[in-house]
From TrEMBL:
One of its GO terms (molecular function) is isomerase activity. It comes from Sulfobacillus thermosulfidooxidans. It comes from the Bacteria. This is Enoyl-CoA hydratase/isomerase family protein. Keywords: Isomerase, Lyase.
């Protein structure tokens, strides 16, 4: 199996190709798209953790052995279109996504981490966009990465192909936490469990609002978020949360959507 999947209430998607540093061939990309879509639509799933088997690499990017077999424009376009669809699927999935990275997180692998909402990274790892060194360029992943570390640093990585240590990436704002390798999964699960305490409905609405607002001009974003907070406040879970606070008890979420 290229990936492993665990469900409910914290979903897990685990890259399972450690023998090739969890490189992404077409089958793996398609499996990931399906897994994120399926878990994202499952009302019982609160959070998704994306991790990987092995110790050397979270994901080294494209499977170059497969890329080398692509001989037509159509086959090349299909491969990279799949990769773009995967990045967008992760970005748009309706529940929070936590990437638990370690070792080498390169090229498309760095794109997967950038598309996630949170990154818990192991110490002593490396991030980078080394495609230029083999005659490629990180076209598909530059957009999500640039949003996190800025256009100048993204272009620097893309044009030089240099690898950056985890600590430097953390200073650039790419990571939420940097921990020892042995602590990565525990810290990711800890964050997932904290998120899971909130209302499933409000978490999904909040994630959707956050994602949509990122693509809007400032004043339009404010107007959009103003409308969204009205929907949130009219939900059963919002009323239950306020009532539970007043009564000094844990809330009992029903997650009945407010009418739109």
């Amino acid at each position: 199996m290229n990936i492993q999947i665990e469900r409910k209430p914290i979903g897990k998607i685990i890259l399972n190709r450690p023998e090739v540093r969890n490189a992404l061939n077409r089958e793996t990309i398609q499996d990931l798209i399906h897994a994120f879509s399926t878990l994202g639509q499952d009302p019982e799933v609160r959070v998704i953790i994306l991790s990987a088997q092995g110790e050397k690499a979270f994901c080294a990017g494209a499977d170059l052995n497969e890329v080398a077999t692509l001989k037509t424009v159509e086959s090349v376009r299909h491969y990279f279109s799949l990769m773009a669809t995967l990045i967008e699927t992760i970005h748009q999935v309706s529940v929070p996504v936590i990437a638990a990275t370690f070792g080498y997180t390169l090229a498309g692998g760095m794109g997967l981490a950038a598309a996630a909402d949170f990154v818990i990274a192991a110490e002593d790892g490396y991030f980078g966009l080394p495609e230029v060194k083999i005659g490629l360029f990180p076209m598909v992943v530059m957009a999500p990465i640039s949003r996190l570390i800025g256009p100048r640093r993204t272009l620097e990585l893309a044009l030089t192909g240099r690898l950056v240590k985890t600590e430097e990436m953390n200073q650039w704002g790419f990571c939420n936490a940097v921990v020892p390798f042995s602590e990565v999964q525990r810290r990711a699960m800890e964050l997932a469990e904290m998120i899971s305490l909130g209302s499933p409905l409000i978490t999904r609405m909040g994630k959707e609002a956050w994602s949509q607002a990122q693509d809007l001009e400032y004043h339009k974003a404010v107007e959009y978020l103003k409308n969204m907070v009205s929907l949130v406040a009219m939900s059963e879970d919002s009323r239950e949360g306020i009532k539970a606070f007043q009564e000094k008890r844990p809330p009992q979420w029903s997650s009945t959507p407010a009418s739109r």
